[in-house]
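Reopening this ticket.

The earlier resolution said the output was attached, but the attachment link was broken on my side. Pasting everything inline this time so it's all in one place.
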Amino acid sequence: MTIKQKVLFLEKPNVDDLKQFEVKFDCIYYTLSTLEQLLIDFRTSLKDIEGIYCGWNGFGVFGGFRGKLLVHAPRHLKIVATCSVGYDAFDIEGLSERNIILTNVPSPFAFEAVADLALYNAITSFRNFKLYAENLNNNQYAHSGISRTSMLHGEFDQSSGKAIVEPVVGHTYGYACCKRDNLSPRGHNAVIVGFGHIGELIGRRLACIGMNIHYVKRTRLSESQEKSLGYEVTYHESLEETKDIADLIIIACPGTPSTRHMINKQLISSMEKPFRIINIGRGFVIDEDALVGGLKSGKILFAGLDVFENEPTIHPDLLGRDDVVLTPHIGSGIAENYRFTAHESMKNIEITLRGYDEKISRVN
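Inline output:
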């Protein structure tokens, strides 16, 4: 009888592929509790595992797969597979030293889904849709005309980020909301920081609604690459170069030491006019204390955040504001992406453990 290789699952994927995988491997479904317990299990019940399926959350609750976790990882461990495209929660150098392969999943479904969320926030930031929705959902009069008229005559308290609205009977044209004009995004300048594949997809969507696309990237695209985008773009070497023109800033860059707190108090103060900001990249690119200060001062008109500086903790002063849209890191959270990444992660594990001569999405 052949002994099956053991694979640890930190999350049990709800996909049909799992049944076939269970035939080939000894699948151990594990619920993380404490770091101490996991280290004990690494030495005992999990000592023979050869692969780890991290799913989406992986070892994030322990600060990632590094430090003690890596030092005490089972000695037969050959591969760690994450379903996400990002891998900043893993000690790449340490894994390489242990000859442990790390794989991720660059998913086309994820790229498109994240770009969709950026588009949603971009439109909301100009049209004040959140303010209207909150008022209509929470008021007692259940009347669209009263809601629209009341919001037109309402006030916006910048410090608290709350709309102050009293019922006003009438049928007015909703051209403004709490003294804030409802604007079309058309003709406004969108600055995309980080112009990789997701940045390009965001640019395409915003260009389709008439926005002028500017991008910030360490290296400019070639002339042929810019033309192949299918929409016009303007290049800037740094975000500071856009301080005179930015109406909307979208963070789509990776989290690195050089991008940490790229959005800070100094940069916010240097912007020539009030602007909107969206972050679908990495949370710590924005200094959230500075962001809150910008919202309270009115220098920042709107913030749409899917990632956070101290994730999973949310800055308390961002909660409950009508000029902020918060989503719990679900930019890529669609069923199509879930199924695709689960399939690819298990495929990476199978190819590695069985020694098949096939390509895997290897990080290190």
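Reporter confirms the inline version is readable. The radius of gyration is 24 Å. The longest helix spans residues 108-127.
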